[in-house]
Every structure is written in C-alpha cells, then in structure tokens.
Amino acid sequence: MFVLGSGSPRRLELLAQIGVVPDAVRPPEVDETPRGAELPRAYCERITAAKLDAVAAGPEDIVLCADTTVAVGRRILGKPEDAEDAAAFLRLLSGRRHKVITALAVRRDDRRWFRTSVSTVRLKQLSEAEIAGYLATGDWRGKAGGYAIQGPAAALVAWIEGSHSAIIGLPLHETANLLQAAGLEIWT
Ligand SMILES: Cc1cn([C@H]2C[C@H](O)[C@@H](COP(=O)(O)OP(=O)(O)OP(=O)(O)O)O2)c(=O)[nH]c1=O
C-alpha cells in the first residue's frame, strides 16, 4: 500500500501527474515552529523527517511526506496568518530573489530516503495595487511565503531556476526516483 503523508491537494495532483494514486492519504500533525536561529534548509528537512515519523503505516507500506519552505536569506516565511501578513511577505519578496526549498522523505520498513530540492524564484517589482489585487484573489491562503506559482501569482513570477513542481510542493523527478527505490512501480 502507498500512503501519502500530506494533506496538501497540490501534492495529490502532482502525484497524479506521474500516474501515482495513493491508496490512503494521512495528513501528519507536527509542530511546524522553527527553532531559534534555525536555517531554512535545516528547518525544512527537520519538519519533513518529523512528518514521516508522524504517519502511521504498516511495515510493508510505502509512506511519502514533504515540506515546502520559502526563505529570504536566513529568514523563513511560513504560511501567512491573514491578509496583512501576506502583504508583508509580498512586499519583502517584491523585485528580489528568494529560495523555495522542498524536502521529500520516503519510508518503507526501517528504510528511509531523503532528498531536498532548492529553487530560486524572482517576483517582479510589485506595486501596492498589484499586492492588493493579488490579496483579493484569496489564493495566498495556506501557501508558504504568501503566494502560489500555480495560481494567479504566476503573473507575478518573473523568473525561476530549479524545479517548477518542487516550488508547487513536490519535486516530481526526485519523487519518482525515491518511490522506485522504495519498490513502487511507476510508468517509467
Ligand atoms: C511557494 C508555493 C507554496 N505552495 C504551497 C505548497 C504547500 O501546500 C504549502 C506549504 O506547506 P507545507 O507545510 O509544505 O504543506 P501542507 O501544510 O500544505 O501539507 P502537509 O503538511 O499535510 O504535507 O505551500 C504552493 O502551492 N505553491 C507555491 O508556489
């Protein structure tokens, strides 16, 4: 049995894109509070490992978890609590580069596989009117960093380097590799 340890609808859709349909979806419950002075990549990898431990499954089951973290320098941008929070994130991201880190973890029996994908994204210089317009779409809700590249914010993304699927929430190349390493047959 293949268990997706994530409540993110994006991750379910991305898996479907490579023909993988989980037998069960079990969102993990973990405390996502960063530790003082914790660096973004270390944070993202720690949370992913914690998610993997938090998902119940049988010994023969394959479990996949991931975490997407947005970082400006050493600063971690989580999910905005409200529109004001999202506006502050967007002002910070406006016209400059930031990192989107997605850590991925797969488990089967006592074996574990980990990969981390780091992408760079540059948003255009945003006017206050553009920020207000984007906030009005509501698409920023529940999205790390306060935007989602697969939604209307695509109009604001000037440039990316890395993995488009990882920025959305799951690096599909690495995902396919790890699932195959764990013994899940996929179309390739
Ligand atoms: C930057 C960016 C983030 N996101 C989303 C993906 C993730 O769902 C979310 C980051 O939160 P995560 O904590 O990675 O995931 P989640 O809480 O949605 O689900 P779970 O913990 O159960 O796996 O931000 C986008 O959809 N598009 C983007 O471009």
Automatic annotation (TrEMBL):
Q: Which residues form the signal peptide?
A: none
Catalytic activity, per the record? dTTP + H2O = dTMP + diphosphate + H(+); UTP + H2O = UMP + diphosphate + H(+)
Which cofactors go with this protein? a divalent metal cation
Q: Does the keyword Phosphoprotein apply?
A: no
Active-site residues, Swiss-Prot/TrEMBL: 67 (proton acceptor)
Q: Does the keyword Hydrolase apply?
A: yes
Enzyme class per UniProt: hydrolase
Q: What is its EC number?
A: 3.6.1.9
Annotated keywords:
Cytoplasm, Hydrolase, Nucleotide metabolism
A molecular function annotated in GO for this UniProt entry is: hydrolase activity
Pfam families, per database record: Maf
Site annotation Important for substrate specificity: residues: 10, 68, 150
Where does this protein reside within or beyond the cell?
Answer: Cytoplasm
Query: What's the superkingdom here?
Result: Bacteria
Q: Which InterPro entries match?
A: ITPase-like_fam (IPR029001), Maf-like (IPR003697)
> Mind telling me which PANTHER family this protein's record contains?
BIFUNCTIONAL DTTP/UTP PYROPHOSPHATASE/METHYLTRANSFERASE PROTEIN-RELATED, BIFUNCTIONAL DTTP_UTP PYROPHOSPHATASE_METHYLTRANSFERASE PROTEIN-RELATED
The family classification in the record reads:
Belongs to the Maf family. YhdE subfamily.
* Matching HAMAP family: Maf (MF_00528)
- What is the annotated role of this protein in its UniProt record? Nucleoside triphosphate pyrophosphatase that hydrolyzes dTTP and UTP. May have a dual role in cell division arrest and in preventing the incorporation of modified nucleotides into cellular nucleic acids.
Under which name does UniProt file this protein?
Answer: dTTP/UTP pyrophosphatase
